[in-house]
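Deliverable D5.2: sample structural annotation.
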Amino acid sequence: MADFYQNGIVTTLHNLADRPIDALEAELVQFSEKRPMALILPSLFSELEGDALPKIVDHLTEVPYLSQVVIGLDRANLEQYKHALSFFGKLPQHHRVLWNDGPRLQALDKELAALGLAPKELGKGRNVWYCMGYVLATGKAESVALHDCDIVTYERNLLARLIYPVANPRFNYEFCKGYYARVANGKMNGRVSRLLVTPLLKALKKVTSQTAYLDYMDSFKYSLAGEFSFRRDVLNDIRIPSDWGLEIGVLSEMHRNYASNRICQVDIATTYDHKHQDLSLNDVNAGLSKMSIDITKSLFRKLATQGETFNAETFRSLKATYYRVALDFVEAYHNDAIMNGLELDVHNEEKAVEMFAQNIMTAGQSFMDKPMETPFIPSWNRVISAMPDVMERLKEAVELDNQEFGAML
């Protein structure tokens, strides 16, 4: 049971009463008359064969308020795409699968690349970007939610609570971030958020002068959550990062484009678990190590746009400050775990902190070596300006794929 405390500069919507899902969904059905709703599901084909996504789809078949479900499918050949069409075919809502590796979408991607407008990296950011473009192209929804496809603890009230703040016509929120306790199987998870992002933000407040942005970022209880929702107009101007900085980058974009009173966060799950990345202590190009570097660089880039100047001395001071703050957090998390009867390995926690501290220096060096590096995918407004018919062509490609290969099922 959460408390009602409001901290930071964005509104927190708590779960104070465990409101029944039927009551939430009844309201959402009413809201859908004024604000039709969509769900984006960025997926790897491998997730169709896992334990989480089949259960998620089963839950979604019972959701009464969605007008549209958009599935972005990565790493799939033709047979796998056709399997995906069948797999998602049980959804009663209007739905489409974007075959991102198919010849039609690949051809469009090459044209955009020739204009310097296509995503440069494969991954979730690229997948989400094309899904957002398709939502804009179809015009079927005013409020849109997005969540991952590997949530093994999924219940449909997660979606209801996630989309409610941007679906309720009486609310003025343009964006909502989901949060939850990363506790599962008797363990405290969420190492990158707990051991990197939170102490790094505290350290940056001490080392830099950009308190307004840092206070905003520090307001989010789980900034790395992959679940968020937004009004459709957000999609036009937002720039989606293509690397592991996606979640941090989206929050930064919302800070750039909207006042804090148009942004909120909501408690969407009592327990939450999904697949876990390896720590990758000895490989900066994999697992949580690469993730930590990308996230740290995304913060440096944002602070630089605010006028902050970085040099080698800044990064050394930041590393030392972060390390002390993070170790204090390890003790706090350990005591919290003990009181709640949870497992927490202090040795492994401190190894993670040591790796993250080193990666702050690695990220800083990379930032100085490539100060003009821009992993952001252009906004759809810019793409439309350069290719005015891109929306129709994107929609047509998805429809032709569905007609040609869906008819074979």
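Annotation notes: The mean pLDDT is 93. The two ends are 47 Å apart (CA to CA).
The annotation will be released with the project's public dataset once the embargo ends.
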